[in-house]
Amino acid sequence: MNAKLIRSIGLATALAGSTFGALAKEQPGQAFITKAIQGNLAEAALGQLAQQKSASDGVRSFGQQLVTDHTAANQRATAVASQMGVTPPTEPDKKQKAMYDKMAKLTGDAFDRQFVKHMVDDHKKDVADYQKAAKRPNNPAAGYASETLPTLQQHLQTAQALAKSGTRSR
């Protein structure tokens, strides 16, 4: 091939790539809904772990609440993702998996302390993320965020109460 033809093919490829990139631009809320689904999967898994590993009735009860609430929230988030044309993730992200693995090695009071600390920190971040998503205009996930926010705020309050009580067995 001659150099001129190679340059032309290279230019055409570059233009096609930039056009595709513009077409593939994320619509508002895609990253949020993907992250929300991963978070719901992680919270439900940690809730199940809490029911198995905790020394505290309060933590085990909270774990059951997490499983119930985040499983229901995940069904709604998955429906929103489908409406948005987003393929819903089927597992938590790497950081969430690492946390699960870390927590799975603990039992009793050591598990309870780490679990409650993680739930407080994680739900503070989630509440802030959901509040932000709920306010974004033209975000198809805003309704889901608004609808789920009160549950997340309740989870944060429960986790904070468990942290204050020391999560002792009852």
Give the arrangement of secondary structure elements.
Blueprint: H1 3-23, H2 30-53, H3 57-84, H4 94-104, H5 108-135, H6 142-165
Report mean pLDDT, rounded to a whole number: 87
Which structural class matches the secondary elements? mainly alpha
Number of helices: 6
Note the overall shape: globular
CATH homologous superfamily, by name? Ferritin, core subunit, four-helix bundle
Helix content: over 70%
- Identify the CATH class: Mainly Alpha
Cα separation of the termini = 80 Å
**Cα-atom radius of gyration:** 21 Å
Give the number of DSSP strands: 0
Order of helices and strands: HHHHHH
CATH architecture: Up-down Bundle
The low-pLDDT segments are 5-24
What percent of residues are in strands?
Answer: under 5%
CATH topology name: Ferritin
Number of domains: 1
Largest sheet report: none
In short:
The protein has 170 residues and is an all-alpha fold. The chain is built from 6 helices and no strands.
What this model shows, in words?
The protein is mainly α and 170 residues long. The protein has a single domain, classed as Ferritin, core subunit, four-helix bundle (Ferritin), CATH 1.20.1260. 80% of the residues lie in helices and 0% in strands. It contains six helices and no strands. Helix 2 packs antiparallel against helix 5. The longest helix has 28 residues.
